[in-house]
Amino acid sequence: MSPHRQSLNRFQLICTAVIFFLGMGVLNLPYAVPHSPSGALSKATNLTQLTADVCTLNRLSSPLKTVLDAQSASLDSVDWFAGERTDGGKPTSPVNPVLPAHCLVTGVIGAHTGAPGVTQYGNHFRLRIPMSWNGRFFFQGGGGNNGSVGNAIGTLKDGQNALTQGFAVVAQDSGHVGRSPSFALDHKAYLDFAYQGVHEVSLLSKAILKIYAGREPDYAYFVGCSNGGREAMVTAQRYADFDGVVAGDPGMAAYDQWVQNLSVLQTVSKVAGVAKGAVPTDTSGAYRDEQLNFVAEHFMQRCDRLDGVVDGLISNYQSCKVTPADERHLQCQADGGASTDARCLSSMQMAGLKEIYRGVVDGKGKVLYPGFAPGTVESGLREQYLGMAGSNFPLGSFYGSIMQNFYFMGYGFRGTPDLTGPADQLASYPASSMAYVAQFDVLKTPTLFNQGRRDFHGANIDPRRPGPNFENFKKRGGKMLIYTGTADSAVQASAVMALMDRLNTHYSSKIASTMARLFLVPGMNHCRGGATTDQFDQLTPLVKWVEQGVAPEQIVASAAPGSDLDRAMPGITRPLCVYPRFAKYKGQGDPSSAANFACVKK
Q1: Minimal CA–CA distance to 406: which of 254, 541, 580, 536?
Q2: Is 226 a catalytic residue?
Q3: What pLDDT score was predicted for residue 13?
Q4: Which of 124, 199, 298, 526 is catalytic?
């Protein structure tokens, strides 16, 4: 059992009382989970062998009836599976594995109707408990705006899954169905997505485990990427539900990050020739694909060698900066630059690219939120920010996705002073995300998001600032493994690095390293993909850190089979190094092997 327990709230008191009166209120003394000699995550033991006769709706519903009623919750189904594939109609694969014998529990917490209209809400969850349970609990984070229940097998970045390794795994939809951010108009749905949903499902899952297996988990872990990365940070700040969390490509400072994304859309609109404040209809021509490739190739040629070997990976990411010499090289000679290449940039295009790299700045030139680094991010600009020429929507896809989050999640159920009607009605909000972006003041409007910033953000360090911070997480010995892709055009790797810098400054790097460690994944897009080594086990290093006290210094990663990088360097592996170190070639040996690289400081 983890030594770190949150003070019992009303829900926990009810859980404890019910279980006690059922004759199950015995102390669960902590025990040492066995480990293999190599120190890798051990396989499930015979310590807890569960059977099908306990896996029934009646058995699990009856003891929890009082608890579930107290939370307006219920179990929908309880089924035993002797072994199955997640999709029985498709061949076995890492995304469709054969699962071990397990009990599958589904249910909902807080079912109700709310705004807008008579919308059905409730936090639906799926919990899988393997027959051979290793005493560990795994919470599978969501993504985007959530809105659907994950498969609850805990797929890892190396293709393995936590359920097969013996973890009990749970997933949830965060209290609403579908991707539309309009759920934020309902008070409970808003808070479920912000932070409460993870907490409540964690408490309920642990209560079910105690009734089913006779004991609570010895260790609890949360693993997520994107919004799941944000969930990891937020839950670490607010609760004592987890001993360790993995925050991948975390949307940690959601509103600040969205402001930066929005500013890129404004920049692209300006480069495309749209007048300031005018509603754009087509920004696809702001940059041609060959121009983006020209820019990416230039920085790849200049920065690839900074890690000691030319291999298509910019591992020394921190040293790849845009200089005036780069700007002259990329800008057309006819526009005052030095390039005679047909793919060169106009002065307007170069000015726009500088803004994209720089980020959001105030009137004095101070960077309020950093932008993107050069060399790999350019390939992601087309779909999300520029749009496709000749398509039905020749604008960046972010107009139809995260930009709408501003005027729903930004104010949520509270509303905002500039609404045209009641806060709980859709008609009161902007009819066009394009117009909203065009007229958004990146310096003034964000001040309206202060409450939402406190609700959603997981990036606050200083306990003197309003909102939750990492102080309690540090005190209880929590561990946070963070990773992010350097080519992510949604989440800025520079912002994640800045978070780690602030942790190091506030606590000192020595103390901060006992709580949080960041690993940059060169060339990786948002959570996966790109010219990158993005296949790695992010869970085992965290488990060893939590349970054995062995802090990770590097994680060996490989390229996805069949990817461009794998075809160029078959079997390539690279060490992902704890920030601020990077992987540098030792100067001899096979450059496709991680063994011939060392983690060094720039």
Answers
A1: 254
A2: yes
A3: 33
A4: 526
